[in-house]
Task: inverse folding
């Protein structure tokens, strides 16, 4: 057993460990980590997390590239990747990617869910509905184009999405952003996987895309194994990758 910050204990089970090439300890039966991006980003938003996880000895990593055309499309793309994995899977979702892992995490080989400044809808809830309850500070920076895709204005991207990244990194994110279809905001979750699977949640206290109080509320109702608050923007996966990987590591340990 290992101690938990809130006083609970989490069983480690029959975990076998072996040393990796870089000297860290790797669990022989650890799950494959599948990373799921959110709106206005792609799989490359996980770049720093991928490098840090690999440095720590996690060699079973995948990052889904979702189309952001509907929750059903994105959940099915994620399920297809999970089905390709022979063995247990830990799903990690950022932003809207939290809604995706909530919808797609019902597969039997998914052993846990990690939410990174993410939506965690309940049954019948959509990201848009949740955002209306606690409007984000950067709501006015989002605008649709003539084809129905939603964009964050490039001149407002850094202050809205990634104010704790340097200007060059935020510029690249702004220019390469992947816009979702606006209708995706209204797509509701059917059966939330967090009601059946263990979960972990990271709150960004300086988030301007999802209100921090909304993140806290979503986290509290799922009774996660652990909630971590970071003094970070919405882009915590890029600005605080070590702390995000610490949380993922603890989820890996608990689900191995």
Result:
């Amino acid at each position: 057993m290992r101690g938990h910050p809130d006083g609970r204990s989490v069983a480690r089970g029959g975990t076998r460990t072996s040393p990796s090439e870089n000297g860290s300890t790797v669990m022989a039966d650890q799950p494959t980590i599948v990373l799921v991006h959110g709106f206005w980003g792609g799989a490359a938003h996980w770049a720093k997390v991928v490098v840090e996880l690999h440095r720590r000895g996690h060699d079973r990593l995948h990052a889904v590239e979702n189309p952001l055309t509907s929750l059903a499309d994105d959940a099915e793309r994620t399920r297809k990747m999970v089905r390709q994995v022979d063995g247990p899977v830990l799903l990690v979702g950022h932003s809207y990617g939290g809604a995706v892992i909530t919808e797609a995490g019902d597969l039997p080989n998914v052993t846990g869910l990690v939410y990174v400044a993410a939506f965690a809808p309940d049954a019948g809830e959509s990201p848009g509905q949740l955002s209306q309850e606690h409007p984000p500070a950067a709501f006015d920076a989002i605008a649709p184009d003539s084809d129905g895709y939603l964009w964050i204005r490039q001149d407002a991207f850094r202050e809205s999405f990634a104010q704790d990244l340097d200007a060059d990194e935020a510029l690249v994110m702004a220019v390469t952003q992947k816009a979702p279809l606006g209708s995706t905001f209204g797509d509701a979750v059917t059966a939330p996987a967090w009601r059946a699977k263990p979960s972990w949640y990271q709150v960004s206290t300086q988030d301007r895309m999802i209100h921090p109080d909304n993140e806290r509320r979503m986290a509290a109702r799922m009774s996660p194994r652990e909630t971590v608050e970071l003094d970070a923007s919405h882009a915590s996966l890029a600005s605080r990758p070590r702390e995000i990987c610490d949380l993922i590591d603890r989820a890996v340990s608990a689900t191995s």
Notes: The chain has one domain: 16-255. The two ends are 13 Å apart (CA to CA). Residues 145 and 151 are 7 Å apart (CA to CA). Residues 1-27 have pLDDT under 50 and may be disordered.
